[in-house]
């Protein structure tokens, strides 16, 4: 396996053009490259590749090489029918990458013929359709009874079958008022829904100052730290997993102030639930913290100028808010963290006092 690891470390990607990648594809590229620094969720990767040729969609990117290097050694160990069925889309993607995007010697490639077994057919569950309406009862379909005549009990009956009872002017007015009210309520609901659709922007992200009380290595993941971070929550400190073991010594993880993304959806990393993310600057495979202003306290709000709004309680992964906004974060020559928008001045990352947040050494860094 050490031979494979050394071989993968030397792999390079065939020339590709990433300039035509969409904003969403760039966000997916960044997301998968970040996840590759930790323990990848192979089930999520397999589901993602179900309808894709490459990691980000129909176009190749550097994420294909990054994820390939991460997954390939593990794929070599898949032998059982259950594993082949579970990861069939990853296997198909590996075979495509090893024959098109990278130059992997034939004797070192994943031998697809070794996987030529009867794999159970993939079945997608379909939700049973509900009956739009229950079958009418005999009573509901029976002809109306005349309203102007009395039956043997002395009660009034409805009009004969096929005869429509004429409504009084008051009843007609009431019907019209009811219809108008229903129409107005529907229009108001549509307007409210339209107003709620706001394009992803930095104000939706809950950036705060956090204080790392203690950090230890994850017991089941060599690349992860498990930190206890005070973010000013009434419930107390949160547990946060960070893939920083290869980049930051554990001594530098103790009792220090950082900036955290506090409203990402919690994820479980090798058995430990992570409830936030530490904001870092990276460049050329080197990583350092984004530093809050001096004198900060846990829970202090951090935001980009012009985007001091109310953050989402929890970022909905389906809306791709973080994935859309994060690629526009970077650092200037003065090491100031900014949000860049085409045709607009850079928005600086500040606190309520207007004090700046900076990283330590990287210019034009990737901030995530």
TrEMBL record:
Keywords: RNA-binding, tRNA-binding. Residues 126-179 are annotated as: Disordered. One of its GO terms (cellular component) is methionyl glutamyl tRNA synthetase complex. Residues 134-146 have a biased composition (Low complexity). Residues 201-303 form the TRNA-binding domain. InterPro entries: Arc1-like_N (IPR053836), Glutathione-S-Trfase_C_sf (IPR036282), NA-bd_OB-fold (IPR012340), tRNA-bd_dom (IPR002547), Tyrosine-tRNA_ligase_regulator (IPR051270). It holds the Pfam family tRNA_bind. The keyword RNA-binding applies. The keyword RNA-binding applies. Coiled coil: none annotated. GO terms for molecular function: tRNA binding. PANTHER family: AMINOACYL TRNA SYNTHASE COMPLEX-INTERACTING MULTIFUNCTIONAL PROTEIN 1, TRNA-AMINOACYLATION COFACTOR ARC1 FAMILY MEMBER. This is Unnamed protein product. The lineage of its organism: Eukaryota, Fungi, Dikarya, Ascomycota, Saccharomycotina.
């Amino acid at each position: 396996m050490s031979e494979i690891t050394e071989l993968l470390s030397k792999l390079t990607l065939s020339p590709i053009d990433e300039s035509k990648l969409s904003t969403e594809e760039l966000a997916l590229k960044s997301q998968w490259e970040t996840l590759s620094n930790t323990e990848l969720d192979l089930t999520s990767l397999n589901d993602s590749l179900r309808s894709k040729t490459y990691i980000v969609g129909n176009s190749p990117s550097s994420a294909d090489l990054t994820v390939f290097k991460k997954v390939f050694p593990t794929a070599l160990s898949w032998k059982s029918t259950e594993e082949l069925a579970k990861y069939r889309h990853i296997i198909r993607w590996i075979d495509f990458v090893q024959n098109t995007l990278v130059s992997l010697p034939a004797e070192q490639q994943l031998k697809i013929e070794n996987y030529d077994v009867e794999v159970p057919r993939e079945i997608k569950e379909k939700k049973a359709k509900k009956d739009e309406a229950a079958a009418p009862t005999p009573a509901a379909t029976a002809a109306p009874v005349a309203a102007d005549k009395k039956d043997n009990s002395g009660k009034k009956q409805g009009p004969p079958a096929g005869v429509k009872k004429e409504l009084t002017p008051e009843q007609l007015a009431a019907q019209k008022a009811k219809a108008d009210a229903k129409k107005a309520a529907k229009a108001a609901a549509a307007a409210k829904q339209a107003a709620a659709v706001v394009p992803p922007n930095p104000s939706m992200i809950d950036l705060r100052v956090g204080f790392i009380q203690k950090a230890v290595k994850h017991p089941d993941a060599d690349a992860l730290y498990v930190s206890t971070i005070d973010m000013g929550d009434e419930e107390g400190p949160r547990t946060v997993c960070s893939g920083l073991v290869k980049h930051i010594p554990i001594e530098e993880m103790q009792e220090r102030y950082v900036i955290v993304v506090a409203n990402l959806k919690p994820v479980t990393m090798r058995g430990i639930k992570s409830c936030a993310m530490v904001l870092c600057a990276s460049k050329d495979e080197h990583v350092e913290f984004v530093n809050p202003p001096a004198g900060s306290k846990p829970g202090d709000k951090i935001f980009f100028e012009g985007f001091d709004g109310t953050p989402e309680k929890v970022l909905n992964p389906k809306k791709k808010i973080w994935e859309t906004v994060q690629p526009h974060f970077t650092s200037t020559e003065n090491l100031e963290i900014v949000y860049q928008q085409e045709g607009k001045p850079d928005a600086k990352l500040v606190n309520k006092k207007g004090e700046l947040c900076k990283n330590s050494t990287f210019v034009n860094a990737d901030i995530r």
